[in-house]
């Protein structure tokens, strides 16, 4: 990795990206998409070993990762108190003295991600911070509730104040190759979101093949997805590096052909700072610096921030603190 540029990317100004409007479903393009599984897996396997980022640059990448976290709680036992604590953490992800020492006062996470019932709590707790609230929707995580209820759920969440909606696609449309049905579903979800940005969760661990992941990514972008996201965090296999390569190359192809940049959100099971840095370095290599801003890249993660905080503390003091000192909720 180019360490000089790595530090520089932490301080790039935010740019407003024109929203992907989508396009007509182009089945020829969809069917032409392939994924060479062994080549993708070979490339992904080399990544963790060969990325070594040193000292100050490592801290800069970890701060960058924080700014891109959708700090998430999606548990059946979520409470108002837990969501308020999570929002306080999003506002101040790392101790102020540490942020001052690292030259990043005012750093926040990219968003807070919750279930519908917790939207108003999160909106209240984040008021004035500029941190958006993302809500999972459409019968998350399986997406098997009646279609009209899935659309209504989006509308309710937008009305409650969510700025971003994370929808789940119907995996069966991918598994049966019904691209028209997937496109129509995604189009309807995008329409229901209005001005709220929509992230399409593919649940890649349930799609059967990397080729299906590539095609589903493309169809969701054609239907107007603002982001494509790997997983709900509830599948048995969630974000992986091979899936990431396939999805970000689909994003690059879509940009090359349409001029629209779609965002990427790996989610589920990313809990270590060193893994986050590998993801960021891959994005930088395959998509470039522009995609390292929170409007185009997010980690969906419930516990990653705690590990980053520990690593930053170690960077500053030479000591590790106990994990329990970095509880999220
Ligand atoms: O979208 C976010 C995921 O549900 C979070 O997954 P995690 O708890 O494995 O970090």
Automatic annotation (TrEMBL):
Top enzyme class: lyase
Q: Name one molecular function that GO assigns to this entry.
A: deoxyribose-phosphate aldolase activity
Give the record's pathway. Carbohydrate degradation; 2-deoxy-D-ribose 1-phosphate degradation; D-glyceraldehyde 3-phosphate and acetaldehyde from 2-deoxy-alpha-D-ribose 1-phosphate: step 2/2
* Enzyme nomenclature, EC number: 4.1.2.4
Q: Name one Pfam family in it.
A: DeoC
Q: Which UniProt keywords apply?
A: Lyase, Schiff base
Q: Which InterPro entries match?
A: Aldolase_TIM, DeoC, DeoC/FbaB/LacD_aldolase
Q: Which reaction does it catalyse?
A: 2-deoxy-D-ribose 5-phosphate = D-glyceraldehyde 3-phosphate + acetaldehyde
Keyword flag Lyase: yes
Give the record's family classification: Belongs to the DeoC/FbaB aldolase family. DeoC type 2 subfamily.
State the name under which the record lists this protein: Deoxyribose-phosphate aldolase
Species this protein is from: Aliisedimentitalea scapharcae
Q: What's the name of its gene? A: deoC
